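INFO batch 0412 | record 1 of 1 | parsing
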Amino acid sequence: MEEQQERRNVGERELEGGQPSRNNGQTGLEPEEHRINIVEISHRDWIESLRTAEESTQSQSQWPRIPKVPQMLRGTQDFKKFYEPRLISIGPYHHGKPDLHEGEMIKRLCAKKFLADSNQDIEALYTKIESNIEAVRTCYDNIQPNEYDDEALARMMLLDGCFLLEFVCGKDRKKVLRSHQINFAEPDLFLLENQLPFGVLKLIFEGANLEGPVKKEMKKFVIRTMELEEDEEDEEPSHLLALLRSALVGKSEPKQERQPDKKGKSSSSSGGDGRFCCPRKKGKQRGIRQSFRNIKELKAAGIHLRKSRTSFLRDISFNSYYFRGYLNLPPIIVDDSTKSRFLNIVAYEMCPDAPDAPDDYAVTSYICFLYDLIDHADDVKELRSKHILHNLLGSDDDVAQIFNEIGNDLVDPDAYEDVKDCIQKHYKKRVNTWIAQALHNYFRSPWTVMAFIAALLILFLTGVQTYYALPGN
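INFO prediction complete | emitting tokens
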């Protein structure tokens, strides 16, 4: 009877401030990574571990896995801080850190309001989550029972799930949270290591007396937060970060950006084949050797920027009309959370052992594409002038630095290789550069046009005068 009463009150204790217990009695510490000492295992076990390696990495659970950020990214420059929460921890990877204690209090307030508004029984919710606890455990890397037992993990999922649903789907979160708490918590929800399985959210939401379904409400939140267009993607996401990526990228087969006339040639890209190339920026080897360096050089060769008709990252295309070319790019908003969100989506795409991870590398390729185009603040200024990039950071130098830092060590999967090849073919025709420079020098404003016409008229009149001044005329 005492054990049943203990489990009956588990949810109430958590919302009142109790911390999930670990079997080892420690709190506030990160679980140790599982290590294998190659010296201590036998030769036969070592051979067997190699044979079963592929099977273990490709095994799927009931719900998709939530991987950790690859070490190759975490150890790059100062990127580590962009993968760790500043206020709110979701899931077990960062749970219990001392500097996130304020976030625990915020989560309890939101969870309490969600339970009250949804008119759900907390004991019934806990029972549903605990009955699926093995599926939950396999979603995370190396979360062993000696770190979080079933009860502690179920409590964590219940509290974090109720908080997340209230924050994302709640109509009056400002009644619970202050504006600065919302602003700090929001970026934490899009960290790869700060995700909750979508299956857990469905378990909690399905009995709620709220508008639904949960995917639709979460999608509204992502679109509203990122100021994105709504796509028609119906695939169920693995977690909130996957939903953000899907909203950014758009459908796998987007519409052709602009249909050229009979004299024009165009190229568009809608994904990628996963091929990897050398990440060096200058003169990279691809289908055609790339020689253009930035937007400024493209402009000098008669290649102009235009805003794509949609904001989906896949909507990139190039049109060539004799000596003029048009590179169509989707509009993007750059703010103080852009770097963190792109880095975490790139980390998600780079996880080879996550069966649900996207294999088209669309966001990674997009970052590498902008890395090719942006060298300096002048390139960002050109993007702004065409209403392709909206800079909320205040400095064009800061924007250029963001894309150069993110793309510097990335290997380009070249999802937009066809577009780059068409740009290069247009760029290497010197006659295009000469004509473009002439148009820029003599036709960039009404005054230069008038001066050019006046100069031609003077030359013509001088020639006529010289002709009639010759003997015999």
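INFO post-check: The mean pLDDT is 79.
INFO record closed
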